[in-house]
## 1
Amino acid sequence: MSTVDRALVLLDLFSEAMPESGLSELARLAGYDKATTRRFLISLGNHGYVEQDPETKKYRLGAALLRLAHVRETTFPVTDLVLPLLNGLRDETGETTHFSLAAGNSMATMMIAESPRANRVSLETGERLPLHCTASGIAWLAFAPEKTVQRLLAKPLKAQTKHSEIDPTRLRELIGAARECGIAVADQSYEDEVHGIAAPVFDHNAQASGAIAVATPVSRITPETSRQIKAAVYKAALDITKALGGLPDRGFYECQKVDLQ
Amino acid sequence: MSTVDRALVLLDLFSEAMPESGLSELARLAGYDKATTRRFLISLGNHGYVEQDPETKKYRLGAALLRLAHVRETTFPVTDLVLPLLNGLRDETGETTHFSLAAGNSMATMMIAESPRANRVSLETGERLPLHCTASGIAWLAFAPEKTVQRLLAKPLKAQTKHSEIDPTRLRELIGAARECGIAVADQSYEDEVHGIAAPVFDHNAQASGAIAVATPVSRITPETSRQIKAAVYKAALDITKALGGLPDRGFYECQKVDLQ
DNA sequence: AACCATTGGTTCATATAATGACCCATATAT
DNA sequence: ATATATGGGTCATTATATGAACCAATGGTT
């Protein structure tokens, strides 16, 4: 991994859950030496991508990112392309849908279309969800580079609920199953009462870059609704991939033939 | 300059005016070897900060930036803090105001509050303005590190209008004057008929990080309106600096005593 | 008040990773 | 057909990144 890569990892560490952090903590999280971490932070700071609070000495993301995001969005408006499709999926299923991108060791929620129902799953833009116990995460892992999967399964994983699967070999099976049928299911493995169904979205290299998911109160899941949602999610994943100029993995196409239970 | 710094320079090259670019062009603009540039782009791409169009092979800013900007904005909402003050300055002067951050060799427009008048100056968020012939640019240069000024003046500069000053020694004088009174004036030096009055905004290290400016049709500029706007801009610059947790340069405070013409 | 465990920050000999001249295939002008 | 772009890749040389050890300062604990 190049020096530049290592420096950029620091940016990935920041999230809504951890919007600012100290030098030692960042070094620990990234697994770098303190001196190295500090040099990286200074370089990032030179360009306005991080700033340091003069009081607390903590580092946070910098204002220059707003400019870049603005250029990106006015130039290549992902939101404009994806949101209508996400809304369509929401209307079709009647349930909350969301689009997320893989970011470091988690999925970052980029867009949400909430269900109109009173009893619905609700989440927030920017939320970061763990890979191993969410439908989106499993769907992404199923088409992610093998090395990424290995690295994730090597570490000890945290169970979010009593339904969470944290055994590496069992997780391998789940990932394998998702790869088989192009769809991942997470039944209350991230939060009790919440059922997730997700499919990967691909970039132009046929690499999974993110995922779309439908999140449902578990009470509304029946064999019928499940089948219906799976079919809708599968189709929407293809549509969004296409809208973003991506190319689905070869194997993903063949999933159409698989009986979606 | 460290390797990481050099890689990050590539991100700064992208703008609304140049939202995507090829390998050779980027290498040329940054002054790097093609191989080096390519390695940087790949590293940036690994983290989603740039992407490559598979057709044209051109590179553009990546989607991961949206996540970072989102975290930054929900965590440390600059817009929420600055926009009200910018609106206040607009209301006070009746003219279009904007806030910009220094980014590479230009000022990047971050926020705008447009004048309600029919005959008004109009600009766009994200626009990048040259340093040497805009009020914002001069205001920033006046309190920027000496090395930055030297580097800028070393290169040949482009005249935007027949009023643009491009002679290094004359520009030095303009910058010096701006440093004296904390205010920079640009009379039709970027665009004919447009008059700009700007003051720097400082970060927590008392370094100029950006500027606010009032842009006026030159027809409405009289000694009186000019004096009034200068006073308002000066005060707003202090307010915004404070709102952002910044600390004005020592010299900037003393400008209050200077007669603003 | 002495103690230990943190923190942010710094130094410098060593080892590792960055560099760029050179090469290739392809595409678009002349 | 020749010249000059382009994106991409290789590899010996060299410059840069690295991290153990080191401060000074802060904040609990005993």
Note: Strands of chain A lie at 20-21, 50-52, 59-61, 96-103, 106-113, 128-130, 184-187, 194-202, 208-217.
## 2
Amino acid sequence: MAITAIRGFNDILPSEIGKWQFVEKMAREVFENFGFSEIRIPVLERTELFARGIGEATDIVEKEMYTFADKSGNSLTLRPEATASMARAYLEHQLYTFDPVAKLYFIGPMFRYERPQKGRYRQFYQIDAEVFGVGNPVVDAEVILMLIHFLRRVGLEKLELQLNSLGCRSCRPRYKEGLKADLDEKSFQLCEDCQRRLQSNPLRIFDCKVQTCQDAIADAPKVIDFICDECASHFDKVKEYLGIAGLDYHLTPRMVRGLDYYTRTAFEVVSYDLGSQNAVTGGGRYDNLFQEIGGLDVPGIGFAIGMERLISLLPKDREFIQYPHLFIASPGKETHREAYRLANQLHVEGIRAEFDYEGKSLKSQMRRADKLKARYVLILGEEELKKGRAVLRDMQDKSQQELPMPDIVETLKRKVFGH
RNA sequence: GUGAGUGUAGCUCAGUCGGAUAGAGCACUGGGUUGUGGCCCCAGUGGUCGAGGGUUCGAGUCCCUUCACUCACCCCA
């Protein structure tokens, strides 16, 4: 094999594509019912946008970005996520002059330079939805509701919605100090990584899988015990609105998020069928992002769904492939031309028809029709064709009928479209 | 970036203690039926044994190096 795709970049083959098309179609349908509009953003942005938006100290910016200089020396980066670009577009095109509230969604590939593993690839696809311009907790709930509705629509069950509040710029630093003070006393039982995290980002210790670290942090203070009155009230309202909608959630005080811009509401949907990378989707509120990249003070909230992870959870028994309605078998040179002509006519009529390209035997053509799972086969026999007739075979019940050629298109339409 | 595991036909795999021409099933092509699919039967195509080096009379098998893939860590969707 001469040339292969590069590490972490995958082909999505025809046998899989039906699932992708289905998921994208459902996302568009559901999100648009909730009043969201699609936006399309560039694959490349100035590196600065992500460095400032996502945060210089995050793993994404520090070590996971595809960054390079273009021919004029500008530092460009393949987008590692969509939110910063969408916020940039909102500001750049001043969408707030039409309506301060913008409800946007985006579907497309993201790029992060990480070692691939199950559910993680260097090019991976996200479905992203964001609401800009509303700080009211009712949209936090609405966005989560839409997300859960979408996941159910595509057939996912056994999901767990995890919910937390991360506080804001005024109360989170206070919490970090409190946490740090508590853990400083037990730092001897923290692993090497967590010793480092204690200084750089103590919240991350919650994610550590080392048992002694988990023991150390078990009775550590929680974010929600430290958040300010405004954040607490916001969080209460979110929970209240979710309750009104009858949505179950798990409070996960230990869930933290890796991007700097998150504030207040944070959520994840996890599935235990996914392996180590168990988050199907994650999101939250980010009331500081806009100021980081542009100066305007615009609140935002949204989520990103990992499409590969979502697709791996789709019900297995569902059929996503469209098989041909008809295979036209043409044993003999005379009939081959008629097969070609008829197939083209049927395509125009909306019937998926295949025919033999290589002058193979009838047996061989029948085998191919069977392999392609064609529902019907039209056999263009030399003798029948001379009389202006052909044989239509139903591959499921094996029944055959001989029809006059002029009736064939209408007969097929009736059988295929059922009227 | 770190760790572990795996590399033999398109796919899933077997290949004994280092021994002769590297096998099976599935898939593919053709035939058994001169014009009828699936099941069955027969035949055929298909291999740099991941790559390079070493040990040996002899390497798919042992050793070294390297590459790829997979899973996990870090972190995220």
Note: Chain A is about 40% helix and 20% strand.
## 3
Amino acid sequence: MVRDSIRILQAQGHKATRPRKLVLEVLGEIENPLSPYDIQGILHTRGKYLNHVTIYRILDLLCSLNLAHKMLSSGGFVKCSLDATEGCHRFMVCQHCGAIREFADKELCQEENDFAQNFGFHTEHHLSEFSGLCSRCYKK
Amino acid sequence: MVRDSIRILQAQGHKATRPRKLVLEVLGEIENPLSPYDIQGILHTRGKYLNHVTIYRILDLLCSLNLAHKMLSSGGFVKCSLDATEGCHRFMVCQHCGAIREFADKELCQEENDFAQNFGFHTEHHLSEFSGLCSRCYKK
DNA sequence: GGCTAAATGCAACATTATTACAATTAGCTC
DNA sequence: GAGCTAATTGTAATAATGTTGCATTTAGCC
């Protein structure tokens, strides 16, 4: 919910401004990754105007607080749907409808770490997106 | 080797042009991800000029033939160092020296597919990068 | 209501990416 | 090796995306 994000913002000493609420509103509604200009466009159709610089800055903030993620493959932004404490976050991206599903799995994470360790590599973060078909689109 | 890539290009009916050789040469030498303009700059210091449009097009082609990869984390391009038949490709990216190590592992791939399957997701591709410290930099 | 730091808007600019079309060239044939 | 042609590259113009410094506005406090 948008309300939760606002609360977290404020708890960290950030203000609950109109532009921030608007951006969170859009990210909360739309499941597909959105670019800053996408967000601007969507708000525009609703008669609300935000400067693109503002949107860039808000998205930076949201990402730094783990309230949003920047998708690596597309560069678009999505609202974070997991608790920050759940471990390394990954994504399933449906090639058909574009919907994102976020998940976390500690076991898989550990296996990957072990795998890398065999090569002498010391892993700090996992960047991982699976692309394919979500259950809905697969049935069709 | 660059020579191998050229052979693959030609086998697929593409011409072995001077610009393509130059781009492959740079990607073959430098281990870190390079943007199109990086490549242009490097060539420039060597007294060779390529138009950026050409470089964009060449990189598209190389990626479509799996002779290069676009890195998720940086958006930069690296030369592919594995055989295309080896399965899904992943990367270890050293945060310190920036070096990329590419690898493939069918078991890990299968586990990830199974994991996604539990959510009803049908995986087609894995995009995966580990960031951390390579063996060299970890020792320091 | 008034104050102040934080946040936004604005303008200008920098960087990165794309398009349409003209010029060039690799690889073929003779 | 000269000539041909489709493929490729270069050019120029433009679009899209991202950044910076500074003036203006506003949320949250008293």
Note: The CA atoms of residues 2 and 92 of chain B lie 22 Å apart.
## 4
Amino acid sequence: MVELSQRDKKILKAVVVDYIKSGEPVGSRTVSKKYMTNLSSATIRNVMADLEDLGYLYQPHTSAGRVPTEKGLRFYLESLMEIEKLGKRERDAIRRAYLDLTGGVEEILKKTSQVLSNLCSQAAVVLWPRLTATKFKRIEFVRLYRNHVLTILVAESGIVHHRLVTYDEDIAQEELDKLSNYLNDILKDMTLGEVKNRILEEMKEEKALFDQIYNRAMQIMKKALQEKAEEAELYIEGQANLLDNPEFADIERLKRILRAFEDKSRLLKLLDMTLGSSEGVQIILGPETETQELNEISLVSSTYRKGEVVLGVVGVIGPIRMDYPKIVPIVDYTAQVLSELMENPENMDTSRS
Amino acid sequence: MVELSQRDKKILKAVVVDYIKSGEPVGSRTVSKKYMTNLSSATIRNVMADLEDLGYLYQPHTSAGRVPTEKGLRFYLESLMEIEKLGKRERDAIRRAYLDLTGGVEEILKKTSQVLSNLCSQAAVVLWPRLTATKFKRIEFVRLYRNHVLTILVAESGIVHHRLVTYDEDIAQEELDKLSNYLNDILKDMTLGEVKNRILEEMKEEKALFDQIYNRAMQIMKKALQEKAEEAELYIEGQANLLDNPEFADIERLKRILRAFEDKSRLLKLLDMTLGSSEGVQIILGPETETQELNEISLVSSTYRKGEVVLGVVGVIGPIRMDYPKIVPIVDYTAQVLSELMENPENMDTSRS
DNA sequence: ATTAGCACTATACATTACAGAGTGCTAACA
DNA sequence: TGTTAGCACTCTGTAATGTATAGTGCTAAT
């Protein structure tokens, strides 16, 4: 593998930057004039031919300029990109967006997706806090009708999960209240991950066989906690923004992408990939996922946290050609602000005054 | 206003039907050949010219065929359309879709939007049961942090509304439990509309000034019931289906429509219009709403009910040129099935066996 | 009242021509 | 030896042109 010289990198960078701006293949003349006035277009041409041989650039046809390949883009993202610094004005705009919210965490998350999609002029996506990461606050059982119990699970963050479970006996509301009281008592201050484990564990023990109340409580609770794969655990916002990108003028392409959005499971998988990652912004290029449907888009994302615990993911989805230097710091900062809000929800109110 | 002769109507109908099928202006020759073999194209031409003068048809340019105007379409829908009968196969398909659902009403509604968008190959929309129409089942208060109470309202249908309210005093969880117990007691068996009225009414009375528990309960309950205008009270499904319509090949048009969908308030208003309507399917053509954003689409909708009480609306959204004879009965039947399910949720389980 | 026939018109489509942008290569230059 | 000017070549996009097609309105004949 040949090392790129300083000059090669500079030219590669110029091509990527210009391509990101214009969306069109960039020729040697453009690079020479706009980015490297000390070199002639002929020289640039030679270098670009080399870069093409090395797989960083690609030529749509003989007499066209060059377009970065996935490899070229990735190299740019890793080593060449100069992230813009976020201006005070933008930082304020992001913070201010949260000021007049009165509702709970859901509202904050929804607002976040709006902020991101507006500021970046692309689609934005927000993955909800994972159940396992948040703390248990309260459980409530409501008998709706025969054999059917509505379970309402409240996380410490204020997020509410509810679920209708069936139980093979019909339990009166009075007894359900006892069960929930019991559970509220013993599950206090655990994370939902711990809750789940504990329940699975204790159901194995003999005690379950003899203590009916205990047994029922555990059974219902277990059902309440079952992850429903279909559940919409994410917001997508600003899909219409995607239409502003010239690369999506092609209807067929657009259709593929919108369909991918409707079936949220694929996106979930994508976002899950970034959940485990370390701090900071991550960029996933569509082709890297090897998922046909996401081939033409890319994701700029970051996790948000409460203290050290990763809760979820926020990100921006757009075409592979995105204005990364602008978007990366926005996602970064938004995720930070969101983490602060998660840490201390009362902030929101005090900052209003 | 001149009355249309039988023949005029037949020709108008032919134009509309053919236009709905093909999406292109239909000429006299086509009508003569495909729909009225007993008449020559010249005769048809004369009639069509008359229909144009009367405002039922419109000619994009001198040498093109005719396209129905809004007036023409409306006339067709009211008096000429022959609704197709829904085959047993389709009826079964709709019923079967609900069989394997385990969750509550939300899941049913979501499924409904999927069913409609699939069967009609357009976007589908489902308006949730209005708060006021459903019966109160239970209220729960959870203290999240200082001055912040999470209120959880369960309707008899199993729909859960939750909301974070602030209260100017910090109330301990023990007291909140008392308050909710009190409310659960006195609000039993009322509809949420009645609940709201009763609370507003009683807060005026003097009792509120003296009885602190009573007072607090009412205050918080009132806040919990406040309709949040922004709340997403509807599902939209199958937006990508719209891309299959040739009329939406134009990106600009598509953009306008997707933006209209993102701002749900406009759609809500549209659906509200049909809420008050009598039984059966209603069709609203975009231009009739006089809302710029909805100008190019139309809505086929029906209410769904529990007994005599109208709960919400289901519908199909597509281009003004839609296959109404096919879609109307689908919407109609789906709304019926949905009403049955609302009436008696246990149906779902029994039919599974 | 209906229709055949004809002149007329607008669109859609294919063909052609041409300008523009870009390349690779060669030869000259510092 | 690295850089550059110059030139022939290639591909695309666009504008201009001609032609086929589908449709109309009108008139005169049935």
Note: The radius of gyration of chain A is 26 Å.
